[in-house]
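We emphasize that the prediction below concerns an isolated chain of 131 residues; any contacts that depend on oligomerization or on bound cofactors are therefore not represented. The input was used exactly as deposited, without trimming of termini.
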Amino acid sequence: MLRQSFPPAAVAGLLAALAVGLVQGWKPGLSAGLGVVITLAFFGSGLVLMSRFVRSADPMLFMAVGMSVYFAQVLGLLVVLVVARDVEGLDLRAAGLAMFVTILAWQVAQIRAWRRARVPVYDAGPGQDAP
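Result of the prediction step, given as a token string:
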């Protein structure tokens, strides 16, 4: 999942940071780049953490842990943005925009990877074939 989610999110985020840099200047562009790095670190580490928790567990547990990790990641990003509000020279709009683009690309790539993985979401039961 990480190999299928990280590259598209990184490309989308870097393109957003480049666009911000071209439109608003190099300081907001650097802030956007920092936002991309923070987002990729949060979501990459969350996916690694989730895979360690539920390596061979029930698919429903996988979904529950996945939703919990995602919620914690979004809250963590919110905390980082609130703390970064006081950092001199950091353009929060540029960083937030780049984070938003990176998160959207990450989620789309992760949903696509999940659909291609064909992970069963229920047990067929004894003597029944899975559809």
